[in-house]
């Protein structure tokens, strides 16, 4: 079977059995069924539990998969580890092609777990009889429609035992060796960034059979995916991983971002107790990451912030910066200085204006405080001049934005904007957003002001794929990764 | 006059004249008077404007300081730069001892500004006749009481032309070469972190006369100040700055945090156009920072996050970590791995447990998944065991906290906590807070979960001086600076 057909068993099954389904809402075996039903899974669902009678959320319990007449594509396991071998045998007998095992207690717990693994290898004839995802995983999520879409549109295929209530379909796919990224943390991040669109999230657990490269290969070919966010504690097949990543470097609108756990010996000690992954050589890990040319993130928060940035840029078909020539528009000289320092530290530059652009700026500024020749624009003096003449403050800023968007030396724009209802009211941010998205350059904002106003502007910008950042450094770092990714591309 | 008496003219004047006071609420000269009145300044206020008649906020206008009979300690200027020399002469004639000049257009605008500066030097006889703060500054703020305290308690001395509505008195003093830190950004940060207590904020502008070292010396001796947050674009007197910082290293409960703007040539180009400060040698700057032993922050957000952390630790008299031996309590193995990596990168270690502590942990864990021997505690298996026995989940976490707080090998604690009302309800965070503050160790949290629950828990923790962080890396970095500061101390 081709790789993508195998992955399809897990991502797009037409029927699933939930082995270990439970009437007790506190149990994972209940919540998996609840997630499937509640999120509009269009296939058939069979709750399996030898100790349960009657119905679960309108579905009849069965004692065993063998009691079911219809074809079953996928079995989801939520049972104690020692029961898995026998239940797997029943699945094989039933000709089920995939088993997703959401139970822990395998390699990561030592000898006893290894014994069960050996049994599974034997029963499945090295996974030739049935393919396995996990164990020690939290299932996967496929989002076909936003949580607030119509009854027929919303949902997709949700097999986590964590429950998501708010979500949005988008162009990000997640591959994670930590269950949290298809559980509590994903729930958090989708609520924190309500505009963040997710297409898939796959918790691959111990990778006994299916591993990161299987899903990576699938997402590379899936045109609904632009950003692949990966958390790994080990590389199952480094060579294949590198080759797949290199493939992505030839695709203009696709980017892989990676958090690698266990890059220090302290981290490796931690991962050993978590997934049982073997310690890897730090130098080897660094070589793999360097060769793969992925964008590396430090922690989960950075992973999703980076993913959000690329996601927004791809949504708007922005032209990615290649040289790191950026501008800053600010109302504070101090902020200008700090941004100038940090951009320099990240290898970004403010280009010098040509005479044409400079002359336009000179007209906006008072004589006593001319503009810079380089693309760092402190608009305070220009605003003072505009106010003296009763010109509109926002008109000045918008003119500056238009100038920069049309200046071919500038590849993208960083901005500091003060947002407050007091002191002359909020800036005309909707107009700015229109100006910016009429252009094709990446434009980022660092917002300060009244917290409520900052949230209002930030939300509107996010809805229009313009990212805002809580700190100056994050704004700059997120621009830097766009440049880095362009440099890595070789199409 | 001693340094502190000079600074007292500016921080604690008994009477002020506002030169350039205006009836127009859009003008800075209005807002300065509004700020003084509205924030309960206990001294006398004299609005000065030759073109205004009648009253301003219940105060009579005067044409000139010379029309006032009573003594005036301080004159605050909000007038165009070219009018300043003549008005200064009047102040000198009136025997006013200090002038705070909130106008720009001096060194930073080139020749014309330098001319005015020369005039000022001559008129003041090199500042022997009157001391000057600024120009190109946004005044200063002294907070005596929280904004929501009683009418007689709230406020202090507010001379910015930015308006703050919500503020809290605390142990942080700010010295800044960017006006934003006594203006829009300070307003933002005080709203963003409502528990952040500020004592003083001084925008020192171009430092024509008074400079950072004058205020630094004052705050070092002021026992209401524990944390001094500094933003500088130039060092006026590097030797004195270093010596003052060295003094702080002998004071157990005082820390200086510095953002230095213009540490790259790109940043220096920016600062030149901002405050007119001369370019400095990068190596020299780094040597000054290294010798001073201050905590360096990268941007304004980091400056205030660091300040908040130290502020909270000093508020609770926490014992600062010296060796970097830290623990992690988490519900996710993946988060454990990433925290382990980043702690290692920041030079922090998880110590090994002695048998006594380890045996207590072993009892909490199921047989199939024993705890780590080192201080990284994934409580998930322990919670599963507790739930099987119908024991309380929070009891387990609290027991772990107590164990770690009493373990003398552990100097402080990092934690990941999942906060959600669904799935068994919010953790008993109030109990945890009590347990933590009965101890003397710094304890930090990275919170995830439902956004609203995260905010609720975060707020309560902040009110109790327990910092929470939006990312894993920030949590670790903020712990690292405590260790760094301890190592710098030599008392």
What can you tell me about this protein's structure?
The structure is a homodimer of 491-residue chains. Chain A contains 17 helices and 19 strands. The first copy, chain A, is of the alpha/beta class.
Keywords:
alpha/beta, 491 residues, 3 domains, Rossmann fold, five-stranded parallel beta sheet, homodimer
Q: Quaternary arrangement of the chains shown?
A: homodimer
Specify the structural class of chain A. alpha/beta
Instruction: Give the C-level CATH assignment of the largest domain in chain A.
Output: Alpha Beta
- Our count of domains of chain A comes out at 3
Low-confidence stretches of chain A: none
CATH architecture of the largest domain in chain A: 3-Layer(aba) Sandwich
Percentage of residues in strands of chain A: 15-25%
Largest interface (C-beta under 8 Å): A-B, 78 and 78 residues
CATH superfamily of the largest domain in chain A: Succinyl-CoA synthetase domains
Q: Predict the CATH topology of the largest domain in chain A.
A: Rossmann fold
* Strand runs of chain A, count: 19
């Amino acid at each position: 079977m081709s790789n993508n057909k195998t992955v399809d068993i897990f991502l797009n099954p037409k029927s699933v059995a939930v082995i270990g389904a439970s009437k007790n809402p506190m149990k994972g075996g209940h919540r998996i069924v609840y997630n499937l039903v509640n999120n509009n899974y269009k296939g058939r669902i069979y709750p399996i539990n030898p100790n349960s009678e009657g119905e679960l959320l309108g579905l009849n319990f069965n004692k065993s998969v063998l009691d079911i007449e219809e074809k079953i594509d996928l079995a989801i396991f939520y049972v104690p580890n020692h029961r898995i071998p026998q239940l797997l045998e029943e699945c094989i007998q039933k000709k089920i092609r995939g088993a997703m095992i959401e139970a822990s207690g395998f390699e990561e717990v030592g000898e006893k777990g290894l014994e069960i693994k050996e049994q599974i290898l034997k029963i499945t004839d090295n996974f030739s009889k049935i393919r396995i995802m996990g164990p020690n995983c939290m299932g996967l999520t496929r989002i076909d429609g936003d949580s607030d879409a119509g009854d027929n549109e919303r949902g997709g295929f949700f097999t986590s035992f964590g429950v998501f209530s708010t979500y949005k379909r988008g162009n990000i796919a997640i591959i994670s060796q930590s269950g949290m990224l298809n559980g509590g943390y994903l729930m958090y991040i989708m609520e924190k960034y309500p505009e963040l669109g997710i297409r898939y999230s796959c918790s691959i657990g111990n990778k006994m059979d299916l591993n990161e490269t299987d899903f990576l290969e699938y997402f590379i070919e899936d045109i609904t995916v632009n950003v692949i966010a990966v958390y790994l504690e080990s590389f199952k097949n480094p060579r294949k991983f590198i080759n797949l990543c290199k493939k992505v470097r030839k695709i203009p609108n696709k980017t892989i971002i990676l958090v690698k756990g266990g890059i220090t010996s302290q981290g490796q000690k931690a991962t050993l107790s978590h997934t049982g992954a073997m310690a890897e050589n730090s130098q080897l890990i660094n070589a793999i990451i360097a060769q793969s040319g992925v964008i590396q993130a430090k922690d989960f928060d950075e992973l999703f912030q980076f993913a959000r940035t690329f996601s927004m840029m791809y949504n708007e078909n922005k032209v990615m910066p290649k040289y790191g020539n950026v501008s800053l528009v600010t109302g504070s000289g101090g902020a200008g200085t700090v941004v100038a320092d940090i951009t320099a530290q990240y290898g970004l530059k403010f280009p010098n204006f040509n005479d044409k652009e400079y002359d336009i700026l000179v007209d906006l500024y008072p004589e006593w405080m001319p503009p810079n020749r380089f693309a760092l624009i402190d608009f305070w003096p220009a605003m003072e001049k505009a106010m003296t003449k009763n010109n509109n403050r926002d008109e000045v800023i918008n003119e500056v934005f238009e100038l920069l968007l049309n200046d071919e030396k500038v590849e993208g724009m960083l901005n500091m904007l003060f947002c407050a209802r007091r002191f002359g009211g909020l800036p005309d941010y909707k107009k700015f957003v229109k100006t910016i998205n009429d252009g094709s350059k990446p434009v980022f904002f660092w917002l300060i002001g009244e917290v409520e106003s900052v949230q209002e502007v930030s939300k509107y910008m996010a809805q229009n794929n313009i990212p805002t950042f809580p700190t100056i450094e994050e704004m700059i770092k997120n621009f830097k990764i766009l440049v880095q990714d362009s440099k890595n591309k070789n199409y």
